[in-house]
Prior knowledge:
The protein has helices at about 5-10, 35-60, 65-90, 100-135, 145-160, 185-215, 225-260, 275-295, 295-305, 310-320, 320-330, 340-355, 360-370, 375-380, 380-385.
Amino acid sequence: MINNELYRHYNFTGKLDHRPASGEGTSGGSVDTKTLVFLVICSFIVLENLVVLVAIGSNKRFHNRMYYFIGNLALCDMLSGVAYLVNLLLSGDKTLQLSPALWFVREGSMFVALGASIFSLLAIAIERHLTMVKMRPYDRKKNYRVFLLIGTCWIIALSLGALPIMGWNCLGDLPDCSTVLPLYSKRYVAFCIIIYMVLLLAISVLYARIYTLVKSSSQKVSKQRQSEHALSLLRTVVIVVGVFIACWTPIFVLLLVDVACKQRRRCPVLYKADWFIALAVLNSAVNPVIYTLASREMRRGFLGLVCGPFCKIQTSVNGSGARPSLEQSRSKSKSWGSGINQNQNQNQIQNQSQNQPHGSSRKEGERGNEAGSGPAAQDTLVGQACPD
């Protein structure tokens, strides 16, 4: 049965005129090609991020501050895939059969999941910046900061997503309705755009600041090595910020057009929102590649889960030859810790040993070796190796 309230809103915004006729492009109630492609992408996003979560949860070496943030990001991205998948299954002819409350839940879950993903990216940038500024090694006793940031991400995302169902909507005020989201108020959409634009600016500024700190802290390293690491870190910064901008800017621009467009019929791009939303969701598929698979340790854990016994067989056959192959395939921008790698750490230890007794330098060397190895040190090594 068609819900009269949804019908009025979809008819007023013109979305009814741009909906495919029942059965168009399908046969026997089957799913159309576009929806099928989106469903496959969503399934891939869910599986990809699920593997990342399992890899982090099953390996104690990943139980440290930075990997908690990466795990939370993977959870947000996985839920984004699930939310969009459910959204697709409840779209089409089923849309007008939903109650307004269920419609708000359908769309709000997308806002919450995608919003939490963006806030998680900001939390990762904040944590890395704090690590660089304080220049202290990883301390398990200070995990409260991790859970405080993660909890804040979810509280803000849930609050933003719940605003429409709590009353900030256009029910009873059709002229204020968004065209892309017919039950959402244009003022609410504009409010979300402002927040996400501020987040984008904050993420960009923080990563630019991190790059500046790393570049300035490597003055004692040889010029050739310094330029190599600066270029490697710059490449990673460009990838992180560039992918985020590429995936999210189109939907931001579309929503800005939605808010600004006075005559809906003259803005036909507003009725092609599915592709813009899909591009934003695609960011959830790219995040695991950037934040996890670029790390050597995470790549090993990921391959161990995907390959299973086959990887173990290859390792036993090749002996020590399997590990160098991973080393050779490692990207220069494997993690933020690679901005100042183990060789740099050892150079600083040698410089310190010139001004310290022999016994003291030996202890520092042992601590340096411990800090330069393992996944926990990769993300804190930058802070440890950057003197004022």
